[in-house]
Amino acid sequence: MWNDVRATWALLVGIGFMMLGNGLQGTLLGLRATYEGFPTFVTGIMMSGYFVGIFLGSMFAPKLVSRVGHIRVFAALASAASIAILIHGLYINPITWTCMRLVTGISYAGLFVVSESWLNDRASNETRGKLLSVYMVVTTLGMGGGQFLLNVADPIDIDLFVLVSVIVSFGLIPILLTARPAPSFQMSAKMTLRQLFTASPLAVISNALTGVAHGTIFGLGAVYAARKGFSTELVSTFMACFLLGGLLFQWPIGFLSDRFHRRTVMAVMAATSVCLVLTVIFTPTGSVMFFVVIVLLGGVAIPMYPLCIAYANDRLEPDQIVAASGSMIMVAGIGLSTGPIVVSYLMAEFGPNFFFAGIGAAFSLILLFAVYRMGRRAPVDIQDQLPGFATGAIGTPIAAIMAPDAVDYVEAVISGDVERLDAQAQTSDDDMERQL
Question: Does residue 422 belong to any structural domain of this protein?
Answer without folding.
Answer: no
